[in-house]
């Protein structure tokens, strides 16, 4: 299967592509020792600022650095403009879809999506039915995972509509690259990403429920320091210039949410929550949750606070619902999708299941509610025992799985132990939706599979990250 290399073309055998010309020349004259030194400096920087993530269930290494590759990924402006148009269209459709699901449910009446797929889905929140959110925006922050397969084609691999993470790495990766390679950076006209915190704050303030208030109060709600993404929660609160709060810092009185401060209670207007739905309010969801705020959902229903992202957005990033995204885009926008899905088989359908069972060694099989690279079979890299185990799972509960072909994900030059070598990558741009429209910072988080031949880029599975340069923007 031919692999598109973003620097050298198909299978690395073509001429160097235009955006990589200066980088390739720079790599050719840069000693290996200097790259080793810069990689060590990058690791030291990340350790000093404490940018780590936790691996649940791994007692030997509960806190880790996400490996940072010092060689940037480069995207041309015309490529990015196409991607950005597709992202804006897709996220606009996602918000219309969520507003409809919790409203008139016209897409279900039209038979576009099976009703049972929605009403039996663990991410569908019955308590949100009929609740109107400010500006009909449910997904304020989306992380859309893209993979590239050739010169012109980006596929959407996954929609992250609940609490997409990784933006802190996008920002820190850029800062480290600028520090380590100022001369290389200066030779390129690179679109900035450092304005993301300002854009995020403006987005959150724009959806505050109390109209006319000049400076709505915003806070970031974290489950606490033992959460795998706690560094990012703290990082974002600091960059936004708002308070980082836990459940014990908040209380509800007369359906209004207040934050405890040294100067007395302060009313909150918008809460950027990094706490999952089930743990948000013990009076409505899990009664034993100590991560949530009793009464906060009542305040939400009363229209006295905006939660970002809205409760119930998880239905939009369910992998079974993902398979209907082309139809969802067409239904709500009247347009053909600009960005296409990866071809996908719904194992809940008998004909699709039969095909998947017959071709398991060649397919990628995913749990519809899975994340982080867990609960997944990569057929070409799996053992016979793993394939047979998944065969049993599929036969027992086919509705829990989707399957996709093993794509030849594009590769980018990466500095590994053996030197500079191609490694597979994906891209997670971050899309902000507020009262003033959609904003997308050029670039995003490039994740890289550091193991030779691996297609799994998730940090929990040994993947790393890269700085992402959009040129000429």
TrEMBL record:
UniProt cross-references to Pfam families, sorted A to Z: CP_ATPgrasp_2
Residues in Circularly permuted ATP-grasp type domain copies: 72-449
InterPro entries listed in its UniProt record: ATP-dep_Glu-Cys_Ligase-2, CP_ATPgrasp_2, UCP005522
Protein known as: Uncharacterized conserved protein, circularly permuted ATPgrasp superfamily
Organism annotation: Saliniramus fredricksonii
